[in-house]
Amino acid sequence: MTSQEIRQKFLDYFKSKDHLIVPSAPIVLKDDPTLMFSNSGMTQFKDFFLGYKTPTAPRIADTQKCLRVSGKHNDLDDVGRDTYHHTMFEMLGNWSFGDYFKKDAIAFAWELLTEVFGIPKENLYVTIFEGDASENLERDQDAYDFWKSHISEDRIINGNKKDNFWEMGESGPCGPCSEIHVDLRSEEEKAKISGLELVNNDHPQVVEVWNLVFMEFNRKADKSLEKLPAQHVDTGMGFERLCMALQGKSSNYDTDVFTPLIAKVEELSGKKYTGILEDEKDIAIRVVVDHIRAVAFAIADGQLPSNGGAGYVIRRILRRAISYSYRFLDIKEPFLYKLVAVLQEQMGSFFPEIEKQGKLVAEVIKSEEDSFLKTIENGLIRVEKLIQQTIADSSKVLPSVEVFELYDTYGFPDDLTRIIAEEKGLTIDEAGFKAEMEKQKLRSKADSAQKVYDWVTLEERSENFVGYDQIEAETYITRYRKVENKDGEFYQVVLSNSPFYPEGGGQVGDKGVLENAVESFEVLETKKENGLIISLINGLPKDAGAVFYAKVNAADRKNSQANHSVTHLLHEALREVLGTHVEQKGSYVGPDYLRFDFSHFNKMTEEELALVEEKVNHKIKESIALQEFRSIPIQEALDKGAMALFGEKYGDNVRMIQFGSSKELCGGTHVKNTIEIGHFKIVSESSAAAGIRRIEAISGDKSEEYFSNLEKQITELSQLLKSKDVVKSIEKLMEENASLKAEVEAFKKEKAKGEIGDWKNAYEQKGNKQLLVKKTSLDAGSVKDIVFQLKKEIPSSVTIILSNADGKPMITVGVSDDLAAEYQAGAIVKDLAKEIQGGGGGNPGFATAGGKNIDGLENAYQKALTV
User: Fold this and answer.
1) Which residue among 170, 347, 411, 782 is the one 20 to 30 A from 847 at the CA level?
2) Where do the Alanyl-transfer RNA synthetases family profile domain residues begin and end (predicted)?
3) What DSSP letter does each residue of 343-400 carry, written as one string?
C-alpha cells in the first residue's frame, strides 16, 4: 500500500463515519502569539476546544502538516540519528467537538487499524492514564473498560502523566490520553522479550502510532485545571510511522514517504544510502530528506528564512541540512533546491501549496544555500587563523569565546570547528563553549521573559469588535490579567465593545486610551489571542467594573487604513504590470509607511515602477467607494474573484474588501473611499529574498510630507547653487568634476611612472626567481597596471604589492609567464589574504585580494618575503 493510498484510506474511512474532511492548516501560525508553528493536529482547532468559536462540524478529520523544532515539543536534535523522529511530519487526525467521546473514538481507531489497514491484533498494545494524586486525577477507568471489549486486558498498560496526559503547552486544553503502540519486530525477537516490556521505552520497532486524547480540561496559568465547557476528542496518528507499519519497514526512511527523496540525494551526491544508524553519511542523508520537507512547506506557507522568530527557525533547519551535506556528503554547491520537484510530485495532489509555490520555494532555498556556503568558506579562513593563533600560543585548546563568536556572529557550525580542530590535533574548550551558549540562552530568555497571570473574569458580557464602524465606544472590561516583563507591570484587558483593531494581516494593532471621569489609561498595543481582542494598558483601574470610553488614536488609524487600502490597489497594479504570477508574500501596514512583499524574479525597472504608481494614483483619484462584504461564504467570495493568499487559514465565512476591480479577503480596516488615501508614492524597491521583491511606500499625510520636504530641499539647493535652474547648475558641476577627475588620473599615472623605475631596481634574487615585495598607497587600478607591466618586463619574477589606499587593505600578486607552472598567483594571494581577514583570487599569472584588517598588512608583508 503506497503512502498516498494510506492517506486516502484514512480520510475515506472517517468520511464514512460522518466526519467533514478539511484541508491542512498552514504549518506557520501568523496570528497565534503562543506558537510559531502547528506542532500538532489540534492547533487549528484550539479555539473550538476553548469555546471561543463554533466548530464548522461536530466531526472533522484531516491530515495536518506539523513542525516540532522549538519550545516544549522539539525533535530537531534527534532527527537523522534514529528511524522515526522528524521536524515536519503529517498528523492524521479525527476530531469530535462535544459529539462522541471515548467509546466511539476507541472503536473507530481499533476498526481502522485492524480491519481496514489489517494490522494484526496481536501486534498492538494500548496505554491508559493511571491517574495522578498530586492533581486529584483518577485512573481513566472508562478508557480501560472500553478497550477491554477490543483487546485482551494484559495488553492494556497503565501510563504515567508524562506519557498519558496530553497538554498542548504550558497552558491550554488538555486531558488524559490513550496511546496505541505497534510491535514491528520479527517473530524471533518477540519470542525473546514481550512487546509489553518495550512500550514507551524508545525501542525503534515498538512505537506509538496513534494517540487518542480526551480533552476534558483547560490548564490555567497558575497550573490549576478547570473543566472545559464540553468534552472533545483529539486524535493524532503519525503518518510516517503508520506507513512504516503498513509497508513492513523497520524505519520511516525506508517507506515511500522518503525513498524518492533519498534516491534523488544519491543521484546528486554519488553516495549510496545503506540505512545504517551510526553511519555519518546515512545520518546526513536522513537529515537532508527530513529537513527539506520542513523548509519547503514553511516557505510555501509564507514563511521566508530570516534572522528572527519563525524565519530564524526555518533558516536554522536549512543550514543544519547544508552543514551535514557539506561535511558528510562532500557537496560544496547548492543542491537542496533540486529536491523540491520530488516533493511536488509526491505531495502536490494532497497539498496544492507545494505544487503552486514550487518555483518560488526552490529559488529561496537556492539563494539560502549560496549564502550559507559562502559563510562556511569565510568561516574556514577565520577557523584557520584561530588555529594558527592557538598553536602560536602553545595551546592545544581553541578558546571558547572565539569558537562561540564563530558560531553566533558568523553562523559557522560549531561541530565543523570541532572536526577541523581535531584534524590539527586540537580540541575546543567544551565547558566554556557550553557556558557561552547558556549565557546566550539566558540573555534571550531575559529579553523575552514574560509572566502572564490567569484571567480575572468580571460580569459576563458579550465581547465584540466594533472598530469597523467606530473609533470610540462606551464599553466595559469583561476580563483582565496581569502581565510582567522586563519593562514593568501591565494589564491586558478584554472589552465588551472594542474599537481597537488587533494586530493581524500585516496591519499594526491600534493604540489609544481607555478612560472615564475618574481615571485614564494608555492603550499600548492591541493583539488577538485565542479569538479574544486583548488591549495592553499601563495600569489597573480602581473600579474595573465601571463604564469606560475606549478611544482609538484617530490620526494613526486614519493613516494605517489608508496604507492598508492602498496595498490592495498596489497588489492589483503589480499583477497588471508584471503579470498574474505576482502574489502577496508578506506586508506591514502602519501609520508611517507600508511594506509589500510579492513574488517576482526580477528587479523592477524605473518604467515599471512609474507605471504601477500611475495606476494606483489613478484608482485613488477615481474616488472608488468601498464595498465591504463583512461575512460571506468563502466559495462565494472566490467566485466573485477575491484573491486568497497561500499560507493563510480562512474560515467558512470571510470578509471581502472591494475597491472596483480590486477584491481581496481581508480583516483589516480600510478607507470608505479611495480619495481618502490622498496620494501614493513608492519610496524603494528591493530584494526581500530570492524570488521575492519588496516595495516600501507612503500615502496620505506621509506622502504630503514627502513632497513638502522635497520642495524644501530643492529650494535650499537652488539657494546654495545661486540658480533657479538647479538641473543646469548640477550638470555644470558634474562637467567640472569630470575635468578634475581627469587631472587626478593623469597625476596618478605620473606618480605610477615614478614608482615603476624605483620598483624595477628593488627586485631581489631568491632561488630561481626575482622577488619584489612592496608597500604602497597607490590605488588598486594603478597597482594593477604596474604589476602587469613588471611581470612582462622582469623575467622569472614574482611581484607582491600590499596597498592601503583609502584605508582598505589590498594584496596584488603577479607572476611572470615563465614561472607560472611553479608559482601560482592565486594560491599566493589566498594564503596572504588570511592576514587581512579577506579573500580573493585570480589566475596563475595575476591575482588580487581585499580584506577587512588593515593592521594585518605588516604580517602579510613579512610572510610575503618568504615566498
Assistant:
1) 411
2) 1-709
3) HHHHHTTT-HHHHHSHHHHHHHHHHHHHHHHHHHHHHHHHHHHHHHHHHHTT-SEE-H
Specify the DSSP element, H or E, that contains 653. Answer: strand 653-659
DSSP secondary structure letter of residue 501: P
β strands within 19-106, DSSP E: 20-21, 59-67, 69-70, 73-74, 88-97
Residue 220 C-alpha cell reads as 490555567
**Series of mean pLDDT values for 10-residue runs along the chain (867 residues):** 96 97 87 73 80 86 86 66 88 94 97 96 96 92 96 94 86 90 93 92 90 92 86 94 94 95 96 92 95 95 85 90 91 95 94 91 93 87 87 87 86 83 87 88 71 88 94 96 90 97 93 95 93 93 94 96 97 95 92 94 94 97 96 92 79 91 95 96 91 93 86 84 83 85 74 76 90 90 88 92 89 92 88 88 89 91 91
Residue 857 has phi, psi (to 5 degrees) of -60, -35
End-to-end CA distance of the chain: 66
Binding residues: 564, 568, 666, 670
Helices (H), 535-605: 554-578
What distance in Å separates the CA atoms of residue 741 and residue 745, rounded to the nearest whole number? 6
> What backbone torsions phi and psi does residue 395 show, to the nearest 5 degrees?
-115, 160
The whole-angstrom separation of Cα 739 and Cα 725 is: 22
Chain CA centroid to CA 633, Å: 31
Query: Tell me, what amino acid is at 277?
Result: L
* Residues 265 and 285 sit within 8 Å (Cβ to Cβ): yes
